[in-house]
Amino acid sequence: MTNGNESQLRIRPRTGFTVPEMLAVVAIVLILLALLMPMIGKARDHAQVAQSAGNLHQIQLAMLSYGLDHRQYLPPKFEVKKNVLSSTDYFVKGKRLNTTTLGIQTVMDSYCGKDVFRSPCDTGDYLSTVPVHIRKGTSYEVKGNNYNDIEFAKKDEATGGHKITSFFHKRDKEIARDVFKPWEADDPSKVLEKIYKNELGPIKWRGGAMNMVFGDGHVATVRTKEEEKLAKGKKVNGGDDPDHFDVD
After folding, report:
1. Which of 46, 77, 121, 174 has its CA 20 to 30 A from that of 153?
2. What's the pLDDT tens digit per position in 142-153?
3. Minimal CA–CA distance to 104: which of 68, 77, 74, 134?
4. Which residues contact 60 (CB under 8 A, 6 or more apart)?
């Protein structure tokens, strides 16, 4: 029979970690995080690019609905990359700046809502990390008619303005795209040149890609000028397709 003193001398089993063991576990976790972070970042970028592509597809469908309600004409076109317009741009050419209070997102609000004009890839421009859609109202450039074209169309139904019949169901007709082309940011001198002209300075958005939606509704994701040409049906090493429509 053991006495009370013997029971008190019994060694209790260890239930915690020592300091060296804790440090070893923390080191392993940090190493695993360092290995996984690039993969997590790429997965996030791919997801955001895919979401942006979905936005553009909704815009394409909304523009088709708009055209059906407006004698087949595309909506007004708004300048996104420019910060100011000259008097010639405004009065002669009928151009309008895209703003948060008046722009493609407000014109199309009843067809698709404003949220689809907000790209999750939008990280601003060269001079500001504030997303373009917060400052301009949209992350996308959308094909449309200048205001003078619309007024002319009212007077001359046969020749005025771009109609949806010239764009939709055609695989090489670009309808809308991200504001910046990734390769525009490769040459710093050209970026500064655009800024000097009072335009947004191009940068590569998340994923380093550009989404563009075409008349038939398909979305192409491109990262180089050559990929853009192929997406538009142009020949990369043999001249352009003479029947191809060039987007502004």
Report:
1. 174
2. 999 887 776 655
3. 77
4. 175, 176, 213, 214, 215, 217
